[in-house]
Amino acid sequence: MRELANPSLQDIKGIGPKMLEQFLELRISSIEDLFYYFPNRYDHYEMKPLHELQHEEKVTIVGQVILEPVLQFYQKKRSRLVVSIKVDGAVVKGVLFNRAFAKKHFVVGETVTVSGKWDQHRLQITIDQYKKGTMDEQSPISPIYPLKGNLKNAQIVKVMSNALEQSIQEIDELLPEEFLANYRLPDRQTALRTIHFPENFKLLKHAKRRFIYEELLIFQLKMQLQRKKHKESTLGNAKTIDRDKVEQFIHTLPFPLTNAQTRSLKEILHDLKSPYRMNRLLQGDVGSGKTAIAIISLYATITAGKQVAFMVPTEILAEQHEQSLIDFLPKDVNIERLTGSIKGKKRKEIQAKLSNGACDVIIGTHALIQDDIQFHDLGYVIIDEQHRFGVNQRNALKDKGLLTDILFMTATPIPRTLSITAFGDMDVSKIDEMPKGRLPVETYWVKHNMLNRVLSFIYNEVKKGAQAYVVCPLIEESDKLDIQNALDLYVQLKEILDQKASVGLMHGRLSNEEKEQVMNDFTHNRIQILVSTTVVEVGVNVPNATVMMIHDADRFGLSQLHQLRGRVGRGHKQSYCILVADPKGDTGKERMRIMTETTDGFELAEKDLELRGPGDIFGVKQSGVPEFRLADLVHDYRALETARNDATDIVQNKRWNEPDFQPLKSYVQSHFTLESDLLN
Ligand code: ADP
Ligand code: MG
What we know:
Elements: H1 17-25, H2 31-35, E1 41-44, E2 58-65, E3 70-74, E4 78-87, E5 90-97, E6 111-119, E7 124-132, E8 141-144, H3 153-167, H4 177-183, H5 188-196, H6 201-233, H7 243-252, H8 259-273, E9 279-284, H9 290-303, E10 307-311, H10 315-328, E11 335-338, H11 344-356, E12 361-364, E13 378-383, H12 391-399, E14 405-410, H13 416-419, E15 427-431, E16 442-446, H14 451-463, E17 467-472, H15 479-497, E18 503-506, H16 512-523, E19 529-533, E20 545-551, H17 558-565, E21 576-580, H18 586-597, H19 601-612, H20 615-618, H21 620-623, H22 637-652, H23 662-671
Parallel strand pairs: 5-7, 9-14, 9-15, 10-12, 10-13, 11-12, 13-14, 16-21, 17-19, 17-20, 18-19, 20-21
Antiparallel strand pairs: 1-8, 2-4, 2-6, 3-4, 4-5, 6-7
The protein binds adenosine-5'-diphosphate (ADP) and magnesium ion.
């Protein structure tokens, strides 16, 4: 038997030991929890004349029973009860399935209210709720709660109504008076009453508005407190950067920085110099020049006499980035690469260089955070394509006690609402501008019946010396089909090309070595056309590739499509993205259209959020986006911004100490594990 956090839940009328158990499963263990168990929708018994009822909609009808109900049994235990109800001079047939016991409730001559699905053609209603008497005797807007196990909605309704009657006065206001007044929000008790038993939809809307703001504010407070903690927990991390050397280094680069790069670099250097610990996210489209900024900032750290670790998700990326480091950095900087496949003597050597300080910068996979790796004086960690590292790996870094400055980089543009929720505890820099002179990728959307033309287009590009990706979507739960698609295209291409070009195949069932081999062959142009399931590595750079063909493109979200498109357009030649899709729904069509209209990753990300919701952008598990009770990141954008500003104000200006903020302060203290001095 589990302990109850608040025993008084048992004092509510109608709550017995059985229900207590069931409540625990719903994570309801106190009266407050019960009150915060909100309906997920409401039934509204609104009466309309018969001719205004919508076919197939849920409707409510009041009328008089005119005939003795007819009960029929069929199969073994199934039954059908038919009642005839006179409404507005017409006779409506009401049908109840498997509820023989209801017969006695329909007495000839009496008035009943029934609701259920309406069949306009047959003047028939499939009754799921019924009540004696007319409308006025029942609540006009009734709550429908999310249910689990044996609990019935009616039970929760009853208990909730008892709880409100018995204990609502125990619920104190949480929000400062000032906020309630400014935003015209109802007080907590009123809002709770309304959200369970709304008098009308207008009041319900206000009650919801209050709880949305409340949950966003509390969430943002948590974020801002964590942010403050990151900053203040590691004083004494200031680096003495050699400005002149950094300036000189920037001048050696073969290009001027874009304004967005300059701005982001300034923000990062400021963090590196400051005594606080950097916890920053650098966002920018593929090719916007994030890596260049990472390299400059890591060079700055080296001029301060510290070591740098640069972590990437795959071995191939590690190699590619190592090459960029070698190309860009001055010769006297010692660069090493460490991945899982580097073992034995070589690994020992690298370990030694890291621990004695001979190595300035190490690039590698998560092999870098293994226990046998010790740094002499690590000052800065850069993590590329950060969403590819699960939350766990991110935390492993923290757990390892790497109290260094950390820069996360991502090429998945994150809509603002998501970046201030999933990454609300971070500072964010954004490179929202492409280097000059880039040829934007031309995007086309074609139907499947054009496939042959697309394939010959690809062949023409290959004849000109370029390379192409052909991507097939991963079809969930059907590994076989997924490979089959790729295989079909692979065979088809081989036939068309008839050995005039080399076609490679890559899919999830290949071993890591085989994948690496294929990727390597593609990188070195030994494969001209790479047919692949979505395992094409994020961040892989093959500037000679000019075509990205995406098969069944409507199966991808916008952000993914954009990521894939980012694989091409990296060289000097015009590149193309060809979306092959026959989308059925409007959303799919809309997505294809948007892709052909913009190459701005941030714009696409906002659209993607609207079309698909937050969970899908990174995949729910890894996103770190919390599940909100009521708030919705697409529609409650403004509430989120307001909550964020208020939370920042409270934390930065230490408004905790004002009397009106005490309830909020104790709430935060009792619900989050915080260092005691964080609120001071
Ligand atoms: P990201 O890491 O954001 O994908 P990179 O830093 O790898 O982008 O840059 C992509 C390509 O553009 C690289 O070849 C890089 O050398 C080049 N590049 C970076 N910044 C600029 C710039 N300001 N002007 C021109 N080319 C640039
Ligand atoms: Mg990159």
